[in-house]
Write a sequence for this structure.
């Protein structure tokens, strides 16, 4: 069935392009094995075509992150070379395997070039990557790398990973200090927030805790001077337009209430100024999802049970569907999970049996898609009607040129003449049957038809098929 | 690795399927495993299509497009590397058939080629192509001729048959049937002298590398009955010479292999939010299975093929060629590993139930829930998933925890497993107790 659709679509596409260009100088374009129904999702004004999947990287992924512009996917994964022989050995020998050291890799995949690059490698004994963030509007990333030894008191290193592949340490977390790395949602700027903490020495009164402070850096990795802020429970948040704000909560013992206050960080004067709460949306916490932007497409991850010969299989299915339009959905894969749509709907990423895969999305005008889709369905119906017609003619030839009666069980008689009995599904055999010689106008006598969108695929007694639009 | 999902066990051994590897992108036309399982050849069409081109196409506007090409790609399970061996533009020709020359890293490739000669005549060519990319031309035919390439299943030899008549002469015509000619070539692509095939015969390779032809002739005593006649290609006389007895192993063209594993390509349906999803499934099962259910290779793939040496399974996933390498492990070692994994799973499950019971106990003024009533419903809020209760036997009667003298030796309950029980104790620890 699928194959027929593919061919049908290919035919229509070729037909369409040769029509628009008088001379068929174009080679056949069959859309790289795309299915006009399964591989498209229709939204309100556009349709989205899912291109065939591309491999981003192999198994053991830890984190996946789309860049805010939807142009790059970063995958954090653990990689250890292990050969098939070593795995086989591990089953037999009781000794632990001696393997090459595992490494953590940051792999980036580019929607435009469709290429994956290993941007960063770190041996497990050298460090653990705690977090990974894109720097908005750039192809650079910021990583937080911590010592692999849990007893190690030294702090994490903040590493800037530039597009060129160079990695440089921008700043190292001080002992006992808490840090936050917060990229701006709109500009290539990152806020580095430090919460210093002084331990109490026994026998001495509790020390006065220093104020938290924020420093900023861009893709060049140069840190600005620290700006101290807040006293109580304060944190830095970016407004949706890219202004850094300080949000402070204070508990009032007298009224037993929490008081909130806002101020904004003036980077020109390196100072904090009280302000009204920002009117636009904010990122409230590190690693929290960006504010809910209504997206044209939604992704669903489900695991339905497949029943097959009395046995059940789990097929993890990823589908995408247009927001609030239930009828149309695109099947991303029936063997994958963790599906995620890139910002600006450039692609869908998912994990299939451990591998990270991407299907790029192409946006096409809805009208044009519907035309192409209907044409594909028509071609498919015409092919199908023609095949049933040929089977009827062949059967008549085997019966001294007598057509089957359309009263009886003509379908089971025709089965041997068809590649697949399902071709007769929906076919209306209207010719009553009888002697072919009595047909005076074979190319004008209808054998039967298949109902389709806006018309019928009609097959005639000379076995030619024609699309007849509904009146 | 999942001991139940990623293994297929036969009566002799177990095979572990590793995570899939991506061989090459979409539009795969043909995948062929080499007989030794060392190479996989993939024939695909490649077209660099950008999303912009698709927009033009759907909108029925002419656009600029890159010229498509056909690629011959070789993947090896030993080093898990992909090499593009040949690239062909449509103006250069198209490969129609690829077969491996046994015991070598060379392929016999048949294609329609359009050499840059002034007449523009299209020819059919046979080449030896190495997996490193070097090509040796072997022979050329005109497209109107019929030909057949028959690699030996045993030795590095290929028979090339040429049928001079593209169509058999019509009945009653005086035109004689020209005899078919066979030549052989090896990995060096050098053709042997031509042998004229006996009329109406077909070719067979024997395991010792000899080429036989099988014809039929009328039995003299019973004129209506045909009897088989074997001929052997004699290099010295350059003729097929009649032999008295049939070669011992030349009768089947494929070596008789007892298949330990079998691949099935199926189609299943699933309902996702009332919409039917077709899931093409590839499963593998042993001829003499250790377990009832087949092992799923993928729930989104087709055209599964197993390598002849069982070191990998190839399949087509949404148009792309994928391979899951396989590792053979001794059956006993696999069974032990599987039992250990199941034990581990049961012990984890028992521990979760025990923790739920203990948390509920401390919330109920240090009273364990009674095992008489509906303790499962009462424990549900403490559990991520109520299915962890499945099969758990809560044997402790319930009541005040203060009355338990020795919590580390007081049994709360257990889960039955193969050869033993995962027993949970009142202090929350879990131990595997083998059956006596």
């Amino acid at each position: 069935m699928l194959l027929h659709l593919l061919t049908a679509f290919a035919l229509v596409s070729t037909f369409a392009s040769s029509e628009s260009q008088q001379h068929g100088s174009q080679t056949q374009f069959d859309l790289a094995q795309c299915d006009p129904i399964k591989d498209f999702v229709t939204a309100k004004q556009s349709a989205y075509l899912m291109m065939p999947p591309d491999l981003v990287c192999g198994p053991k992924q830890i984190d996946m992150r789309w860049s805010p512009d939807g142009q790059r996917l970063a995958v954090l994964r653990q990689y250890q070379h292990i050969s098939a022989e070593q795995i086989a050995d591990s089953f037999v020998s009781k000794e632990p395997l001696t393997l090459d050291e595992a490494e953590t890799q940051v792999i980036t995949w580019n929607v435009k070039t469709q290429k994956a690059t290993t941007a960063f490698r770190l041996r497990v004994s050298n460090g653990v990557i705690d977090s990974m963030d894109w720097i908005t509007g750039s192809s650079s990333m910021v990583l937080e790398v911590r010592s692999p030894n849990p007893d190690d008191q030294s702090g994490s290193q903040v590493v800037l990973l530039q597009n060129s592949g160079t990695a440089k340490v921008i700043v190292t977390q001080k002992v006992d200090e808490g840090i936050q790395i917060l990229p701006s949602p709109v500009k290539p700027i990152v806020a580095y927030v430090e919460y210093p903490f002084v331990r109490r020495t026994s026998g001495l009164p509790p020390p006065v805790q220093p104020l938290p402070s924020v420093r900023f850096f861009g893709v060049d990795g140069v840190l600005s001077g620290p700006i101290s802020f807040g006293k109580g429970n304060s944190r830095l948040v970016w407004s949706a337009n890219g202004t850094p704000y300080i949000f402070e909560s204070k508990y009032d013992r007298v009224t037993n209430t929490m008081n909130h206050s806002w101020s904004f960080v003036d980077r020109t004067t390196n100072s904090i100024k009280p302000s009204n709460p920002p009117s636009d949306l904010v990122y409230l916490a590190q690693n929290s999802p960006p504010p809910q932007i209504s997206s044209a497409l939604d992704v669903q991850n489900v695991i339905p049970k497949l029943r097959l010969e009395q046995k059940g299989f789990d097929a993890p299915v990823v589908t995408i569907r247009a927001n609030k339009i239930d009828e149309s959905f695109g099947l991303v894969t029936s063997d994958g999970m963790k599906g995620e749509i890139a910002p600006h709907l450039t692609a869908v990423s998912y994990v299939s049996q451990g591998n990270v895969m991407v299907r790029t999305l192409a946006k096409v005008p809805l009208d044009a898609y519907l035309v192409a889709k209907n044409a594909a369905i028509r071609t498919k119906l015409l092919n199908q009607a023609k095949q049933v017609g040929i089977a009827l003619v062949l059967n008549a030839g085997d019966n001294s040129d007598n057509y089957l009666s359309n009263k009886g069980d003509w379908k089971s008689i025709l089965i041997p003449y068809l590649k697949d009995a399902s071709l007769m599904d929906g076919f209306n055999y209207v010719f009553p049957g009888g002697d072919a010689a009595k047909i005076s106008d074979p190319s004008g006598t209808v054998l039967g038809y298949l109902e389709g969108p806006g018309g019928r695929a009609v097959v005639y007694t000379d076995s030619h098929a024609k699309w007849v639009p509904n009146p | 690795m999942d001991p139940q999902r990623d293994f297929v066990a036969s009566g002799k051994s177990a095979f572990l399927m590793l995570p899939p590897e991506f061989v090459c992108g979409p539009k795969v036309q043909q995948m062929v495993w080499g007989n030794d399982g060392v190479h996989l050849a993939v024939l695909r069409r490649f077209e660099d299509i950008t999303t912009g081109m698709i927009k033009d196409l759907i909108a029925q506007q002419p656009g600029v497009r890159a010229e498509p090409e056909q690629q011959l790609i070789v993947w090896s399970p030993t080093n898990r590397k992909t090499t593009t061996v040949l690239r062909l533009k449509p103006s250069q020709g198209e490969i129609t058939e690829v077969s491996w020359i046994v015991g070598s890293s060379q392929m016999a490739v048949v294609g329609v080629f359009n050499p840059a000669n002034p007449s523009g005549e299209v020819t059919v060519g046979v080449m030896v192509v190495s997996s490193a990319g070097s090509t040796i031309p072997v022979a050329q035919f005109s497209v109107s001729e019929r030909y057949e390439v028959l690699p030996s299943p045993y030795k590095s030899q290929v028979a090339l048959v040429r049928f001079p008549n593209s169509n058999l002469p019509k009945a009653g015509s005086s035109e004689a049937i020209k005899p078919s000619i066979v030549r052989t070539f090896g990995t060096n692509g050098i053709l042997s002298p031509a042998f004229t095939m006996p009329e109406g015969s077909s070719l067979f390779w024997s395991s010792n590398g000899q080429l036989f032809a099988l014809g039929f002739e009328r039995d003299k005593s019973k004129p209506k009955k045909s009897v088989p006649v074997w001929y052997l290609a004699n290099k010295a006389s350059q003729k097929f010479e009649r032999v008295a007895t049939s070669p011992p192993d030349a009768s089947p063209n494929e070596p008789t292999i007892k298949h330990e594993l079998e691949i099935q390509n199926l189609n299943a349906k699933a309902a996702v939010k009332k919409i039917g999803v077709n899931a093409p499934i590839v499963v593998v099962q042993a001829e003499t299975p250790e377990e009832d259910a087949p092992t799923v290779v993928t729930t989104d793939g087709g055209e599964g093929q197993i390598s002849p040496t069982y070191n990998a399974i190839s399949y087509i996933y949404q148009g792309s060629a994928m391979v899951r390498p396989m590792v053979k492990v001794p059956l006993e070692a696999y069974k032990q590993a599987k039992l250990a994994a199941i034990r581990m799973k049961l012990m984890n499950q028992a521990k979760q139930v025990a923790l739920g019971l203990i948390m509920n106990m401390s919330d109920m003024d240090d009273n364990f829930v009674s095992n008489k009533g509906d303790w499962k419903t009462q424990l549900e809020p403490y559990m991520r998933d109520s299915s962890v209760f499945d099969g758990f036997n809560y044997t402790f009667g319930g009541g005040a925890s203060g009355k338990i003298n020795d919590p580390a030796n007081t049994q709360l309950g257990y889960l039955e497993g193969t050869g033993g029980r995962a027993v949970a104790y009142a202090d929350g620890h879990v131990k595997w107790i083998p059956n006596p």
